[in-house]
Design a protein that fits this description.
Layout: H1 2-8, H2 14-26, H3 32-67, H4 73-86, E1 101-102, E2 109-110
Antiparallel strand pairs: 1-2
Bound molecules: zinc ion.
């Protein structure tokens, strides 16, 4: 139990641990650790698939824009550098904006992760496409 707790921050008491072990055996796993490993592999595969789909969409959009003369490859690289610098760190990544999100309807603040206003239920505007 200590090994599982240490690795995965899992069970807060032995009752939960025993219930987790019983559930794992019901689902055909030898242990809760084996079940968690299987679930982790499934999640990694899901995100790898999603990332590959986004990469294909991005490449398609970039090529379509270049071919139709919307921008050149150099224009795209310059714009990427400008956008990269806007979050304060030039690191080749878009750092998530963790500022609270204001609701357009009630003007109250919400978590940066919220999709709906926790005060009035209004859908919050997406800040980016991805
Ligand atoms: Zn609101």
């Amino acid at each position: 139990m200590m090994e599982i707790d240490g690795l995965f921050g899992g069970f807060s008491n032995s009752t939960q641990y025993i219930a987790g072990q019983a559930r794992a055996r019901q689902e055909g796993f030898n242990s809760a650790k084996e079940q968690l490993s299987h679930q982790t592999e499934q999640r990694i595969a899901f995100f790898e698939d999603k990332l590959a789909r986004y990469a294909l969409l991005l490449k398609t959009l970039m090529l379509a824009c270049e071919r139709s003369g919307v921008f050149t490859h150099d224009d795209l690289l310059k714009l990427r550098e400008t956008i990269d610098a806007e979050d304060g760190v030039v690191d080749g990544k878009l750092t998530e904006d963790k500022a609270p999100r204001s609701c357009a309807q009630c003007r109250r603040k919400n978590s940066f992760r919220a999709e709906k206003c926790m005060w009035c239920g209004n859908a919050l505007a997406k800040s980016d496409i991805l």
